[in-house]
Amino acid sequence: LLLGPIAAVGGQAANPNLNRLVAAERAFSRMSEAKGAREAFLFHLADDAIVFRQRPVPGRKSYQDMTASSAVLLTWAPEYADVSAGGDIGYTTGPYVVRDRARPGEPAAHGHYVSVWERQSNREWRVSLDAGVRHPQSGPAPESVATLPADCKRWRGPRADRDAVRAALLKEES
Fold it and tell me: What is the pTM of this model?
């Protein structure tokens, strides 16, 4: 069930950054359904994104190396989302389903994903980190997106050096 961004975000319906993030996540899933996961990920991943396979790997290269097959149908929906006080970083998480396009009624895999998003200099949201876990059964599709209450205190201190953190993560796992 896809609800409009304002109606869908509990607790912070008036937060435009959160609404844009949830809208970007839903557009990402719709593109995956319409054009395939490879094209959707290549469009929505940040240039320096990391995706978790069996270990963290550079995201864009991972999808560039993937065949453009559209036999797999990957869809998902955000169940929880939030953005930083500065509105430049956020996350989404929720269930995903993998299906074979030839047999869409029979899910091949289920799981949950978490995506960390960064707002780019052009104000567009792009995924900087994406990870997922599989589990044996699917749960109900989310009807809305939960988030922290608008009056929740958020970190306003200095940001970590993201380039150093990414480099250390990739080095540690290589």
Answer: 0.79
